[in-house]
């Protein structure tokens, strides 16, 4: 019992910082004027939700958000998994460590810096990527200004930046595999490929499923930092995500009611998805919170 | 047993300690929240009170000036917040916190100006929005027209009518009243003066054409007389190797994603076709141009057929390679670099272009010289240059809780005196090791005397002809000297020469005014509710439409579709509100 007391600080923090601010959702139903405060602003009911529903871009933005987020989830699953399996086969320790560190590095760079670099690297006139494409004999691609390419640029650059981090997680899972399983496999005549197929992969499947299902809750978070730093008006149609959209039409022009309404909408969807993903993780990955 | 007990006691103590730290940490941050949530004045006053503990809360008259002049003794402290321009280079030893202005304010007026925070100019508007939401306002701050509106409605800013009458100097008053009282009227709501206009009353944003003269000579063309000439020059600059380096690496016309801007904007290009659209990509979406039709009703300038004509010409220029192919992803700083690195030879822009970005090119790039030309028309109708700065776009507002609502006026009096009354160059520009640094931008408050610059240009040129400088005031004399220095061979004074000499920026802009060639919106009111609610999303639609038409990813006729869509998705409401406002001229 006394040890349970240690929970109290945590609970207080959660109450104060997670449950307390929930009062703020009333802003979604008000014509909120900051200086009048939450309780004195005019009540407008579902007005903001109707307004968002009737905005021509809303559906487009929602579609972009889900598409980009899902692509990022898939890329963010496959790339680190493959890299981890490949790195696991590398025998030279210093080589493995060096690779691990190098691919891990971009994770610590902010998107502001990454965007500055990408703007130059991907430029059709002077960028190295396009010079390579031209050298291969293809047409140059305006990656950041072409609305067909832009979502994929987002996905690829995000994966490039973050896959080192995921690799570390999977490598850790691989290290935890019982060596005697490999010994048994060798005795049965399994080569490296068979060992990977029948020992390593089955062993890390639970953590893979777990990470993937938990990521479902983030399907409406397509990465504000990244998109905000890379996008421009000519790719709004495919690159604009909920967060950037709300920022532009809501926060930057002081329409707090609208911004909060979108936030509330996002939270509601996320709640459903997180519940669903927990259920899936519970069923398939034996994941238990309680 | 004993051990267990001790353990329990220890963990109880530990958790108590944890609780206490979290609770105290939270209660601190909670105080700040209270101010915004329940709007209790006590929380906020106690916070702002921290800053003013040194100053006695006595009435201003007891310890300070009772009119436009005087000094606080003991000194008072007033708080404000600042936007810091990323491009600005500061003179050695000068900062936004301590500079010649703040030192003067402290020594002459007994007012210490304290910056509660400073933030990059691009982030300023958002940070102000957050400040407004938190309810923790500084004594005075610079807000845009829309935020001004919100603050007036909310009633958290002070009524300045009385302090203006009592503390504003004659010079300050005349700066408010110039050009038809437009600035004073805009800042007055329901008969009360609610803010100090930071700008407005000027038409310094009217566009001019800037062209590399050396490039013109290289391709064998004359300065433009019509818009067709402009296009001919743009194409020649693209295809005829104007920099004579043997490579096809130049562009005809400067452009970046802002579309409308004082540097590499398209405002002047559109004006050439008698079109007056205005809706910058990074703008508020609420500063719109309206045209009065023959029936007395207003129309929105951006949906007129002339806009479509001009867009067609731009799309053609893009197709022929005269526009930077990546213009839609670069900002003004990048497009400035293209110009200074000799890739672009023509731009439309307002008065400041000689001072940025092309200010050092005459000195640094041998043979380069930018010429300045007035806008040209596409036909025999005279061209009108649009100006959107007649109405103030920014105001200084004073918090209701400020103990010294008169302080900003005293600061402004000094500002006007140093820059317009008895001009003191040290407050405008200082030169350290041959490099010029602007000082005027460091002042925590600013204003302006409408029409000041064109007047100065006329006076300087008259003095140059007659050789008699006695009629010049101190400010004009210093510009006169800068021009004289340039003529004596000082290449660093190139920008001053372009600004003040005959045929320079202010002469040409003065001619626009004298010849009634300035277009201003027919609507002179503040943003309407629908503009505020739908402006940003309508702006995005317009920017998308223009960018994709110019880049050729959509046909020119998608303009009509967009125009119809604009009316349907809120445009008609905006027009109705504007027509019903009674603020149409």
From TrEMBL, chain B:
Please note every region of biased composition (Low complexity).
Answer: 27-36, 54-69
Task: Tell me the keywords, alphabetical order.
Answer: Signal
Q: Which region ranges are annotated with the description Disordered?
A: 27-75
Gene3D superfamilies found in the cross-reference section: Periplasmic binding protein-like II (3.40.190.10)
Q: Where is the signal peptide?
A: 1-25
Renumbered to this chain, the Polar residues biased-composition regions fall at 37-48
Q: Which InterPro entries match?
A: Bact_solute-bd_prot1
Q: What PROSITE patterns does this protein map onto?
A: PROKAR_LIPOPROTEIN
Q: What is this protein called?
A: Extracellular solute-binding protein
Q: Which organism is it from?
A: Paenibacillus glycinis
